[in-house]
Amino acid sequence: MTDTSSQPAFLAGLIGSGIQASRTPSMHEREGAEQGVRYVYRIIDIDKLGLGVEALPELLTAAQRMGFNGLNITYPCKQAIIPLLDELSDDASQLGAVNTVVFKDGRSYGHNTDWWGFAEGFKRGLPDVKRDRAVQLGAGGAGAAVAHAALNLGVGQLAIFDMDSARAAGLAADLSARFGEGRAVAGTDLASSVAEADGLIHCTPTGMAKLPGMPLPAEMLHPALWVAEIVYFPLETELLRVARGLGCRTLDGGGMAVFQAVGAFQLITGIEPDAERMRRHFLSM
Description:
CATH topology of the largest domain: Rossmann fold
Strand order of the largest sheet: 2-1-3-5-6-4
Shape: globular
Number of strands: 12
Structural class: alpha/beta
Order of helices and strands: EHEHEEHEEHEHEHEHEEHEHH
């Protein structure tokens, strides 16, 4: 029997709603094992616990007291967690969303690896696509991170649509303040915006296993459009299936899922993970 007492040990968790099928725990634990450290990653599903976002202060305190090294934060907690943290990274502060919390010396630090995760996946999956105009559906916590990534990736103008038009307008104003006037706008006419766009980025929960369907009418899609998805359970959403059928170039949500985990693993453990190995493990699940 091998002696593991001298190995570094890490305890982490994921807080969110309806996350039983998440692949994140397995990605972290497997990479920990490959790195020769003991790594335990727990799922803290507020749905299963019968709790709402209002339980976040209690959960955060409990994790800190129980010696957790860090937490990942997902829907619907990425914005609600912010006032509860001691410090924010520049990225998390600009984006107004946190997906990784690190506990150190009695303090809590909020980070955002979502935007970097989307950008890394995009650079690999759609490296050479035209980026003059893109349409983004969804302006929530993940949407804010992805829009930040899209403008970093050189999208000339991003038209943002959300069920809550004030939220889309707020995000567009934030982005234009950071990236330059007019780089992001709140969309008004989805059909004409998609017709004129080079690409479509989807950042709403529609298409998830528990929320099947399409986030926009299929007839709006056209073959010249590239389509990037952030839903990764399932990897082939109805949106991607229909888009591929039309001949669109597509990017599934796996890249963002893997690379946000790569970033979070490094923040929580201080160890540089093997991104390619984590990607292979994700795809094997």
